[in-house]
Amino acid sequence: MRSKGSTGEGLTKGGAATRGLIHRALVYGSERDFAETVVPCLREGRRAGDALVAIVAPERADLLRAELDPGTARAIEFIDAAEWFTGPMATLAAYYDRTREQWWPRGRLLLLAEPPWAGRSPLEIREWHRHESLLNAAFAGSPSTFLCAYDARLPGAVLDEVPRTHPELSGPRGSTPSGRFTDPAGYYAECNAEPLAPPPAHAAERGFTSGGLPGLRAFLQAEAVRLGLPEQRSLSFVLAVNEVATNIIREGGGQGRLWVWAAGGELVCDVVDPLSALSDRFLGYAPPTGPRRGEAAMWAVRRLCHIVEIRSGASGTVIRMHVPLAAPLAGGPGGRR
Predict the structure, then answer these.
(1) Which of 221, 245, 260, 310 falls 20 to 30 Å from 160 in CA-CA distance?
(2) Residue 119 pLDDT
(3) Residue 7 — φ and ψ, nearest 5°?
(4) To the nearest 5 percent, what fractions of the chain are helix, strand and coil?
(5) Would you give the DSSP letter of residue 172?
(6) Is residue 216 part of a domain?
(7) Is residue 334 part of a domain?
């Protein structure tokens, strides 16, 4: 499976060396620590005419409103973090849409974000860290400041990666460069270094070649419903897998095999191209910029799924798609003032 000519435009540089984007992390030990860093930042942003956005829990929004003067508080677009951070790719796509359509037209963006970490699986935690790293590449050179807040009581699996995914660290006394920041391309490769576990023995299996896609779609629909995905939500899953299989037939090895199973509250599907490898390290993480079918297909696939994992090399390519069996929050990432 190939992405012919795809370069991942907008996702090819580390943000640390690019003018425009400022991406900082705040690890705070108390609400007072949080306020002493964030409130002056928001006040300064309002004086500068920035578009102010705070994606935080409702109680954190209440704290900011109490600490800020009414004019600054009214200037902030508050978004409920639980509704916005539904999944790494859904959130990244929402950032792409909202920055261009609503936030940048109002001025430089100053965005405060505090994602919820409770209840995340190890896979989700890894993918959220990948998301933070990708922001440096996705928005390199853009008129944006991202300030990401982390409670110091979070588990080590969360906090240990913060200085690696943020070029700068913030505190009440200002910001300093992170001595552990890792280039997004290197971080991305690390996330893909661990091999995927093979499908379980009970997974349903099917091969596919050119001309066999209608039967493949019927098989996927039946398996999705049998494994507990509500019928009204199965179309997105079938479309995602069909896109991958179609790309393998048209631009990859021409044939492949897939496995479908349920585990950990998710519907999981492995699609394997044994004959070709992918060349684009950021495939599907940026909106397509031209007539590149592989790029457009993987952008769609990532948006249709909760998490997509890719492993590619000399032995071919495996694309693993995860779809929650339970319905996500209605509407996905969104906001309210």
Answers:
(1) 310
(2) 92
(3) -115, 0
(4) 40, 25, 35
(5) T
(6) yes
(7) no
Closest-CA residue to 303 (of 123, 93, 7, 126)? 93
231 Cβ partners below 8 Å, 6+ apart?
Answer: 225
Same domain, 39 and 182: yes
The predicted structure's pLDDT at residue 15: 34
Model confidence over 104-116: pLDDT tens digits?
999 999 999 999 9
Pairing of strands 316-324, 266-273: antiparallel
Could you report the per-residue pLDDT of 111-138, keeping only the tens digit for each? Answer: 999 999 999 999 999 999 999 999 999 9
Q: Average pLDDT, stretch 152-160? A: 96
Residue 138 shares a structural domain with residue 210: no
Q: Note whether 79 and 184 are same-domain residues.
A: yes
Cβ atoms of 314 and 275 within 8 Å: the answer is: no
- CA 71 to mean position of chain CA atoms: 33
Establish if 9 belongs to a structural domain: no
Task: Decide: 122 and 129 in contact? Cβ < 8 Å.
Answer: no
Amino acid identity for residue 272 in this structure: V
174 contact partners, CB below 8 Å, separation of at least 6:
none
C-alpha 53/C-alpha 66 separation (Å) is: 16
Residue range 241-293, pLDDT digits in tens: 999 999 999 888 889 999 999 999 999 999 999 988 887 778 899 988 766 67
Three-state DSSP class for residue 86: coil
Tokens coding 213 = 């896609």
CATH number at residue 309: 3.30.565.10
- 107 and 82: one domain? yes
Does residue 198 lie in a domain region? no
Q: pLDDT grade, residue 12 (50/70/90)?
A: very low
Query: Tokens 């339970």 map to which residue?
Result: 326
Query: What is the extent of the structural domain holding 42?
Result: 15-191
- Residue 107, amino acid: G
pLDDT of residue 139: 97
